[in-house]
Structure formats: C-alpha cells, structure tokens
C-alpha cells in the first residue's frame, strides 16, 4: 500500500448520466462494487460517498457533486475515489474547479481503478483528461444532432410521443404507435371540436371530466388531466395527421410511418376553427401545403408570393377549403387580388 494513502480521507463519488431508472440501471452499483474493491485492496479510509444520476455536460446540474466540493472545501475529506475522471467532470467549469482544488492541495489525490493524480503531479495529465471529457461531450452532442436531423428528414421521431401515441423503434429509427388507451379518446375529442359547435375549453372539460382522460405516466411526470395550453398544442400538432416538422425549417413537414388520428383535411379544418376562435396557429404554419410558395414573385414590385387557405360553408353544412396566392406586400403593391391555386396550375 502507498504510505501516503494512510493519511488520506476519501470520498467515493459515483455518477451515471441518465436520470431514467431503466437506462444505465446497473451503472451506479457496478461502479460502487469496483470502487469498494479498490478501497479494500489499498486499505483506503472512506469517509462518505455520493451517487447521482445527472449529466455533467453543463455546470450547476449536480447537487451531490456540489455537496462533495463543499465537503472538500471544509477539509473533512481530501481525496476522491471514482470510477473514471469523466465521472467527475465533462465541462470546463467543473473540471477547472477540481483541478484548482488539486493544485491548492485541498484535494491530495484523485484515484481511479486505473490511475491516480496527486497534488504534486504535473497538472498536464489531469488537464488532458478534462479536455478529452469536454471534447467527447461536444462531439457526442454534434453526432446526436446530426442523427436527429437525418432521422427527421425521413419522418422519424426524436421527441417524446404526444398524447395518444407511444414511442417505438421501427426500421432502425424512432417512430410512433397508437396508445390504445388514449388514442380513441383523442379521436373523440377531435370529432367533437370538428363539429364547430364547441369551444376548446368545452372539449377539454369533456375530455378530462366526462371521459376521465389522464396523460401517459412517465418517470416523474404524467398521470394527470390535460391542461389547456397542452391541448391547444395538440390541436396544432401535425403529428396527428402523420407528419413531423422539419428541425430547421418549421414551415416544412415530413411524412411519418405511423397511423394518423386525423386526415389532412380534418387537421387543416381544425386550424381554420382555431384561427376563427382567435387562437389560430402562427401565420407561417404548415406552409408545406402551399406547393407553389417561393417559386413566384410579384410581377409589379418583385416581392415574394405567399398563400393562405380560405373556407366556404356549403348549404349541406360541409366546408370546402381553397388555397389563394397573393403578393406579400399588399399595402405597398397595387396588386390587391388573390389567385386560386388551380388557375396557377392551368
């Protein structure tokens, strides 16, 4: 045994990145088992231990880490035993904090099953480990975002399933399946609103109070009635007609491979009803429906041509929808009229 280890008071620190119980489930226990063996083999004095399931990619996200640093600052412990250096830090701010404590002598040793760093060592070794950990986090973030964008273009899902669906993996990418318990209730709510005889609060009240709708239960959330803002977001979500928004251009949609709860006509009718009620979507919403947008410019002022959907209620109670194109600068341009989409194709 290293004689210097006799006088050290160790804190044992274990961390896994995921907060979910079903991911990296054995990570903390596996780390602890290994560290206990190292402590027994080297007869280390373990004063206390900290364990947490938090990401270290950003500072000020780990309460147990903060407690450990505070304990070190008081002098009650002066050494750290951990599985690997990157369990302690993955961001420059906290790696700098640990390195400074080591340089100041408040941490006498950082020990892992494979190597150790002491206050007398060249600081370069730990700095290299810190730099590699930070770079790994940056590279991982870039790779995840690149994968999400590629998946998004194919109509894949990279977000938690909205109410009425569950997340699944199919054909090597994330997608959705119907939630057999909640999907029928969501469809009933859509049908109720599509009649045009009920307001959003009235439909929501029926969904929650009369039909007993509860959101899907997750690790720390769910199991509650829908709130109004969430229900408005549901009514504007193209996922329910089988599409996802483009990550970079929200006006574009990509076709998914799951079962839609709404037809495209039903979805756009809901948007018209929302707009009529004063809670419609933003003006640039769902512009993928306007196939000719961006192709033409105004022959008089040279400005872009945009489009909008207008509805007409028929005698039998049904509603027809028409797409009209017009200059984006109606106030400045003398071309005040609109042109039906069908005429532009002819």
Topology:
Blueprint: E1 9-16, H1 27-42, E2 45-53, H2 63-74, E3 79-82, H3 85-88, H4 92-104, E4 109-111, E5 116-118, H5 124-153, E6 165-170, E7 173-178, H6 183-194, H7 200-210, H8 228-235, E8 243-245, E9 253-255, H9 264-277, E10 305-313, E11 319-327, E12 339-340, H10 341-345
Parallel strand pairs: 1-2, 1-3, 3-4
Antiparallel strand pairs: 4-5, 6-7, 8-9, 10-11, 11-12
Annotation keywords:
single chain; 346 residues; alpha/beta; 3-stranded antiparallel β-sheet
Care to describe what's here?
With 346 residues, the chain is an alpha/beta fold. Helix content is 36%, strand content 19%. The protein has 10 helices and 12 strands. The protein has a 5-stranded mixed beta sheet with strand order 2-1-3-4-5, with helices on both faces. The chain has a 3-stranded antiparallel beta sheet with strand order 10-11-12. A two-stranded antiparallel ribbon has the order 6-7. α4 (92-104) packs antiparallel against α5. The longest helix has 30 residues, at 124-153. The chain is elongated. The N and C termini lie far apart (89 Å). Residues 282-288 have low confidence and may be disordered.
